[in-house]
Amino acid sequence: MSTRAGDIYGVIGDPIEHSLSPQMHNAAFKKLGLNCIYLPFRVKPRYLKSAIMGMRALNIRGFNVTTPHKTAVVKFLCELDEAAQEVGAVNTIDNDEGRLVGYNTDGLGALKALQEKNEDPSGKSVVLIGAGGAARAIAFTLARRARSILILNRTQHRAVKLAEDIERKLGKKILARPLARDSLLQSLHDADILINATSVGMYPRIEQTVATRKVLHSGIVVFDIVYNPVKTLLLREAEAAGAKTITGVGMLVHQGAEAFKIWTNRSPPAEVMRRALMEELSGR
Ligand SMILES: NC(=O)c1ccc[n+]([C@@H]2O[C@H](COP(=O)([O-])OP(=O)(O)OC[C@H]3O[C@@H](n4cnc5c(N)ncnc54)[C@H](OP(=O)(O)O)[C@@H]3O)[C@@H](O)[C@H]2O)c1
Fold first, then answer.
1. What is the pLDDT of residue 126?
2. Alpha-carbon distances of 88 from 126, 156, 196, rounded to whole Å
3. Pairing verdict, β 99-103 and 79-80
4. Which ligand 1 atom is at minimum distance from the Cα of 129?
5. How much of the chain is in helix, strand and coil states, percent to nearest 5?
6. pLDDT on residue 234
7. Which of 150, 156, 226, 271 lies 20 to 30 A from 177 at CA?
8. How many CB atoms sit inside 10 A of residue 181's CB?
9. Which of 70, 181, 199, 202 gets mutated to test ligand 1 (max ligand atoms within 8 A of its CB)?
10. How far is CA 60 from CA 8, 29, 33, 46, in A?
11. Which residue CA neighbors atom 18 of ligand 1 most closely?
12. CA proximity to 67, closest of 33, 95, 90, 34
């Protein structure tokens, strides 16, 4: 569906004040000369259904969905794309004349963030830390490409559940273990890519890391999807170990750019979106 003048977009979550999506999408609308606006909406869980009904009633053309609504919103939508179905969570809703379609662009965003740094995961051995919403999206996307994926999570049963879901849906065997220093040390020895998809190291707990330089090495690429701060303690530890690092900004840009494409059918100005994000992040 093409974007008309005056269309309204937004992001729903609780809290929402921290969201960088308004800056990113409004910069993209401005760059393309689209008379659209993107707003943050704080929606408490008990009002989620009303918010989605309101989206339809007010003809809000698109929403991004963030914590804590990514899974809960699914039951209020008419249809899900393949990625959202697999992951069981939605980060983008398109309002196609009252038909609300849910998408999940996080996995593709992560893939593009790796690819733009010349680190395509095809045929690679990946260690993924985390089993929450973002980790699920990344795991499904990478499972189609990587040679192997090992999922490590603090709560082991969530890692096992994710591995089982992938095996059932994609027929690919995925290993799952509890997150511990020993399992990290062992698994990182032969890994090509380490991805932190937990919230460890995110502002305000910036002194935390899932791995230190002692378990990292120069033969590994370390990708931290946390984007605030841009250079997390994990990435600083990885640099100290001589490893190549990738920040969470690329994923944020690309998941947003994919949503923009779904809503507007236009090629998203990814570099403008990245600049808007970096400006906002450096001011924080
Ligand atoms: N760059 C991007 O575009 C992008 C996109 C989406 C999300 N993110 C970021 O990714 C992070 C995760 O988001 P999410 O939506 O997946 O969150 P989520 O669904 O709440 O999952 C949180 C994950 O972090 C783990 N975790 C939390 N605290 C921990 C701790 N102290 N020690 C070890 N593990 C811990 C959880 O483990 P348990 O299962 O044991 O609780 C779980 O695996 C957030 O920082 C978010 O901002 C970035």
1. 98
2. 22, 19, 20
3. parallel
4. 43
5. 40, 20, 40
6. 98
7. 226
8. 11
9. 199
10. 5, 15, 19, 20
11. 132
12. 90
Nearest to 233 by CA among 208, 265, 257: 208
Please tell me the pTM assigned to this model.
0.96
Q: Residue 241's pLDDT is what?
A: 98
DSSP character at residue 246: E
**Mean pLDDT per 10-residue run, the chain (284 residues)?**
75 95 98 97 98 97 97 98 96 97 98 98 98 96 97 97 96 95 91 97 96 96 96 98 98 98 97 97 82
Per the listing, tokens 């890519």 go with 193
The pick from 103, 198, 203 for probing ligand 1's pocket by mutation, whose C-beta has the most ligand atoms within 8 angstroms, reads 198
Amino acid at 220: I
Residue found under tokens 């403008």: 272
Residue recorded with tokens 């929403």:
63
* Tokens found for residue 26: 């409004």
Question: Which residue type occupies 19?
Answer: S
β-bridge partners, 13: 42
Q: Is 214 an active-site residue?
A: no
Q: Tell me the Cα Rg of the chain.
A: 19
Pocket of ligand 1 (CB under 6 A): 67, 106, 109, 130-135, 153-155, 158, 179, 197-200, 202, 225-227, 248, 251-252, 255
